[in-house]
Amino acid sequence: MANHPGRINDLIKIAHHTAICVDDFEAARDFYLDILGFEVEGEMDQRSEPALGRVVGLPGAVVRWAMLKRDNYRVEVFKYYTPEGRKEPNRQCDSGYTHMAFEVSDVEECYRRVVAAGFRTNAPPQELRGGYSKVIYVLAPEGNVTELLQFFPEKLKK
Length: 158
Fold this sequence. Notes:
alpha+beta, 3 helices, 2,3-Dihydroxybiphenyl 1,2-Dioxygenase, domain 1, 4-stranded mixed beta sheet
């Protein structure tokens, strides 16, 4: 695959963002701001420039939009006014993007805090890969999944 004619790895500078489409814009935006510590980089309501509709493949699209930034990473939040989309989130076994993940320093403390803030998780922190990682899936607004994981490299089986 190293010589694939469409390979663009030499042109990629850095990972930029993950986009999420929601119905309750404020709840989603506030989750990333208040719980995960992102900051608003940009926000617009009734965004409808024709080029946006062409880029997303939905001519005539009208959205509420925000770009949220934390360190060198961003989450882009969309609420589509037009057209209206499906309302049920993907399950982890469905095709397409299913979750975003953030490495944390203390997953047990993250679990305590998100539950205290009223958010659900699929389960308490779970050890995976023989204890190399400990993980929770936080059910953000509208069931969108944010994974929080802590690594324990000393437990990696060589």
